[in-house]
Design brief:
alpha/beta, eight-stranded parallel beta sheet
């Protein structure tokens, strides 16, 4: 694992859910682990919403100057994000805003993301409008790369429908991301799968041996989505 992992993606790709899951999965492996919430594009589904839970697990969560939200959060990032990026003892996950407009914040801290010890990953949800085809996913990939002037190192298949996700969604996303990889030469580093679907995926995926499965939980799912009317 590189010392800095930058997570980017289209709106609705689930990049924040993945960032939180990645942090939780690494918390026992790394003594000093930070999650930087650098999403200033979307006021909903930001990793800072799980600040207490993450910090209780020993994960530093850094976003604005105050360390907590004040009503509508100011669209700014504190200079404190530099601390773990400059400290070689830290492993840092960077949750960036959606699309090329959200990824623009990377330019402000560019010097920290150009080293060989940095990975820049693109999260793809093949169920999301505008990234449901290889061409659509590649269009967003190219836009982000052009905006930040840095290459994407890896793809993450995170095809989902929140709690309605099925094994077929994961399989379809796997196949589409492999096609994007074939066309771009960028490897698919993970196929995410709700941990409740893992056994079914292993039984039904025709080429399961090719998957690099990353089990996830739904940390970011708001409870109001479960209300029955």
């Amino acid at each position: 694992m590189s010392r800095t992992i930058v997570i980017m993606g289209h709106y609705g790709s689930g990049k924040t859910e993945f960032s939180v899951n990645l942090a939780m999965s690494l918390r026992e492996e790394y003594e000093k682990l930070a999650l930087l919430d650098m999403d200033i594009a979307n006021p909903y589904f930001r990793s800072r919403e799980r600040q207490k839970q993450l910090q209780d697990e020993g994960i530093s969560v850094i976003f604005n100057e105050y360390g907590y939200d004040i009503a509508e959060d100011l669209p700014a990032i504190t200079a404190k994000v530099r601390a773990p990026l400059e400290n070689p003892e830290f492993t840092t996950i960077v949750d960036v805003g959606g699309n090329d407009s959200g990824a623009r914040i990377i330019n402000q801290f560019r010097k920290y993301f150009v080293s060989e010890d940095t990975e820049r990953y693109l999260v793809i949800n093949a169920n999301r409008f505008e990234t449901d085809t290889p061409e659509g996913a590649m269009f967003h990939l190219e836009q982000i790369q052009e905006e930040i002037g840095l290459a994407i190192n890896g793809l993450i298949n995170n095809t989902h429908m929140l709690a309605e996700t099925t094994v077929n969604d994961v399989i379809r996303g796997h196949e589409m991301c492999r096609e994007v990889s074939r066309r771009t030469g960028i490897p698919v580093v993970w196929d995410t799968c709700n941990e409740k679907l893992l056994e079914e995926l292993e039984r039904t995926a025709p080429d399961f041996a090719e998957y690099n499965v990353f089990p996830i939980k739904l940390y970011m799912r708001p409870t109001w989505l479960d209300v029955k009317f």
